[in-house]
Design a protein that fits this description.
magnesium ion binding; single chain; alpha+beta; Phosphoribosyl-aminoimidazole Synthetase, Chain A, domain 2; 331 residues; 60s Ribosomal Protein L30, Chain: A; ThiL-like; seven-stranded mixed sheet
Length: 331
């Protein structure tokens, strides 16, 4: 009969390669790790809940991949090197096939990015996956949300809206299935955290965040923290072929600006660092795209242009909100 200790031993203790800075890993009351001298520790946590972040049709391998990838995306937004992972897994029952696939997806992404699973917890209840990821970076080099200034250029690391489009298509919100559906679903289920780019941005970007809830929603965090506004040039938004062949121009703009789950980086760079950014990212397969500029706060914190002309865009919402449909407690 399987129990929580068997699950940990069988599915999660086995790893092909463990980091040399893991002094004590899985199997004790706590993990012990060695942080490099003159470095600081960065800690992030994300939770995936069945019925909220994924459903019963989502492959277990995809859940395993994504629970790690979304945390590594947060580390990338801070400019950190991923190092250590802790997993809290709540299961309604023991499904060995599901666990095998989930663990495979988790270990694959950990191995690819050079981080080690060092501990966690297993309990019984509604299917929920919580991951805490830790990384390190040179002291004082962390990227934050509060450094953007008027005149800085606004960048994103890759195509926007594809994950949201995949979700819409799979939930049959469009009458015709896209011929690009498989590629779109891969973007939804297997996001790529921009780890190398995040580390390249240390000392270059003035502010940074990852796009998890939608570009406008996440950009607003930078603007609020920095006390600035932004102008976005809609014709510069990076849109995939799948996006442009499936939606009208207006709908594609809205999807790119508001859909969540992209896990691209959104960041700002001052004029004097643009050349350095070009040099540091020249080797990357997907180079960052400039989509606008930071400006002083006006009546509208975010404004739009299309081919150089001011443009009014009708937006149903700015991004994903877990509690959007829950009424506030009047007390």
């Amino acid at each position: 009969m399987q129990n929580e200790f068997n699950i940990i031993e069988h599915y999660f203790k086995r790893q092909e390669k463990q980091r040399s800075d893991v002094v004590i890993g899985i199997g004790d009351d706590g993990a012990v790790t060695q942080v490099q001298p003159e470095h600081q520790l960065v800690t992030v946590t994300d939770t995936l809940v069945e019925g909220v972040h994924f459903d019963q049709t989502t492959p277990a391998r995809a859940v395993g991949h994504k629970c790690i990838a979304v945390n590594l995306s947060d580390l990338a937004a801070m400019g950190a090197e991923p190092c250590w992972i802790s997993l809290a897994l709540t299961l309604p029952d023991i499904d060995e096939l599901w666990l095998n696939e989930f663990a495979a997806g988790l270990h694959e992404v950990c191995q690819y990015y050079g981080c080690t699973l060092i501990g966690g917890d297993t309990t019984r209840g509604p299917l929920t996956v919580t991951v805490t990821a830790q990384g390190q970076l040179p002291t004082g080099s962390a990227l934050t949300r509060d450094g953007a200034k008027a005149g800085d250029w606004l960048y994103v690391s890759g195509p926007l809206g594809d994950a949201g489009l995949a979700l819409d298509i799979t939930q049959q919100r469009y009458p015709k299935a896209s011929p690009h559906l498989q590629k779109l679903v891969e973007r939804l289920h297997y996001p790529t955290p921009r780890v190398a780019l995040g580390q390249s941005l240390r000392g270059v970007a003035s502010a940074c965040i990852d796009v998890s809830d939608g570009l406008l929603a996440d950009l607003q965090h930078i603007l609020s923290a920095s006390g600035v506004g932004a102008e976005i040039e809609l014709d510069r938004l990076p849109l995939s072929l799948a996006m442009t062949e499936t939606l009208s121009q207006e709908d594609a703009f809205v999807k790119a600006l508001t859909a969540g789950d992209d896990y691209e980086l959104c960041f700002t760079v001052e004029e004097s660092n643009r050349g350095r950014l070009e040099t540091l990212t020249a080797h990357l397969k997907n180079r960052p795209i400039c989509i606008g500029r930071i400006q002083k706060v006006a009546s509208e914190p975010i404004t739009f242009k299309l081919f150089g002309e001011e443009y009014t865009l009708s937006l149903p919402r700015s991004g994903y909100n877990h509690f959007a449909n829950i009424e506030a407690d009047p007390s």
